Amino acid sequence: MKKIIIILFTILVSSLANSQVYVVVNTSVESDSVDCEKLLEIYTLNTNNWDDGGRITVIDHKGDENSKSVFYECIKINQKAVKKIRLKKLFTGSAKPPKSATSDLEILDLVSKTPGAVGYIDKNSLDTSIKNIKVVAVLDI
User: Fold this and answer.
1) Rounded to whole angstroms, what are the CA distances from 76 to 31, 63, 114, 124?
2) Which of 8, 35, 42, 102 has the most Cβ atoms closer than 10 angstroms to its Cβ?
3) Which range of residues forms the domain containing residue 31?
């Protein structure tokens, strides 16, 4: 039994170590790159506009735990803390709630149709045939 647990743990760690996440935005966003610090500001709703003045629409991932793990490792805050910060901002009326999606495909669809939108997906889910999407960051563990 102990060997099985060790093997499963090793598989899990190696799969996470090879995880890459793409941060995607609608092509209306002028910026070609976004760093982890800026993503923290965006996902905690501390900033509502892109550098070019365009409105940011956050697409929150409610699915893929591997992508979430890589993303939250980048922004150096856990999901509960982000939720707490967001709730405070929503309660005070200083921010709008993010849109949510349960799959990478849904995120790609929302980002492609929403000017100023940002989301994150597993690198293997990127569909280059979808219009109005560009990758602005590649995140690794």
Assistant:
1) 22, 19, 27, 23
2) 42
3) 20-140
CATH code for position 101? 3.40.190.10
* 3-state DSSP assignment of residue 114: coil
pTM: 0.85
DSSP string, 6-73: HHHHHHHHHHHHT-EEEEEEETT---S---HHHHHHHHTTS--B-TTSPBPEEEEE-S-HHHHHHHHH
Q: How many domains does the chain have?
A: 1
Tens of pLDDT, residue by residue over 55-110, are 999 999 998 899 999 999 999 999 999 999 999 999 999 999 999 999 999 999 99
